[in-house]
Amino acid sequence: MPERPEIFHDIAPRTDVVAQPLSTWQRIYASAAARKAVLLVVLALVWEVYARRLNNPLLFPSFSSTVSALFESLSSGEIPRAAGYTLLLLIKGYSAGLLLAGLLTALAAATRWGSDLLEILTSMFNPLPSIALLPLALIWFGLGDGSIIFVLVHAVVWVVALNTFAGFRAVSPTLRMVGQNYGLSRPGYIARILIPGAFPSILTGLKVGWAFCWRTLIAAELVFGVSSGSGGLGWFIFERKNQLLIPDVFAGLLTVIVFGLLVENLIFGTIERRTVRRWGMQN
User: Fold this and answer.
1) Contacts of residue 198, Cβ cutoff 8 Å, sequence gap at least 6
2) pTM score of the predicted model
3) Cα distance between residue 184 and residue 177, in whole Å
4) Tell me, what's the pLDDT at 167?
5) Which domains does the chain have, with CATH numbers?
6) Distance (Å, whole) CA 208 – CA 213
7) pLDDT in tens, the chain (283 residues)
């Protein structure tokens, strides 16, 4: 049968198509880091304009005066010392909370009694504000780091355990059957099936637990610093407020914000890109 020329024909490559370079705005829009940087600059400009129009440094200092106070505190070593003290407490409390959450989740995943216990404990203690336990912690553990670490553990453990266990329960039956068909041992089944399948929920719990722990720590230092006369960023903010050094107060708050941005984008953002996004579990 002869070929039909209207169906079988060669398509010559087009040579008139020229790749257009992206404009500056298109390159900025395509980069998440660039978009966030632009938004931060806009927020800083809004802060500066509003503060200058208000013209009341004791009520709301400008962004430029806040940055100036921040650099002065950095050069004097006050904010680095306070930030180091705060971060050390944060690491201790967050690590202890993650360890306890892991134990509770393992118990809940292993037995129905453990599942019921986790459900009861989270229903009881998760709605309870961590900072409300600080007076009891001061009685139980005295004036020291132990009191703050106790409230930090409370801030972390319930949200991490709840999200992790919910992620385990949400793993699809198909993945579970795959693990069973491959004959994986119990540790291998958890490491290769449950944890990867539940990792989006686990990561959400880690991020929320970090946020709860960070803000609880700053609030606890404000109260704890009144009693001890020492502390980290919370005490730095409280002390400068008493001295009416409002730009320094905002410098301390700005330091807290910067730490939050760094942890969210550098640590959790990197983990998210290398795990759930790479695995195709999140757009």
Assistant:
1) 164, 167, 168, 170, 171
2) 0.79
3) 11
4) 84
5) 63-274 (1.10.3720.10)
6) 8
7) 555 555 555 555 555 555 566 666 666 666 777 788 888 889 999 998 998 998 888 888 889 899 999 998 888 888 888 888 888 889 999 999 999 998 998 888 878 888 889 889 888 888 888 888 888 888 888 777 888 889 999 999 999 999 888 888 877 777 777 767 767 677 777 777 777 777 888 888 899 999 999 988 888 887 765 445 557 888 888 888 888 888 899 998 999 888 888 888 888 888 878 876 666 555 5
Residue 116 tokens read as: 């019921």
Paired tokens of 239: 């002390």
CA distance 228 to 230: 5
Helix axes 78-110, 246-262, angle to 10 degrees: 40
Residue with tokens 């504000």: 129
∠ CA 22-24-26, rounded to 5°:
55
Give the closest residue to 93 by CA, choosing from 162, 145, 136: 145
Report whether 241 contacts 222 (CB < 8 A).
no
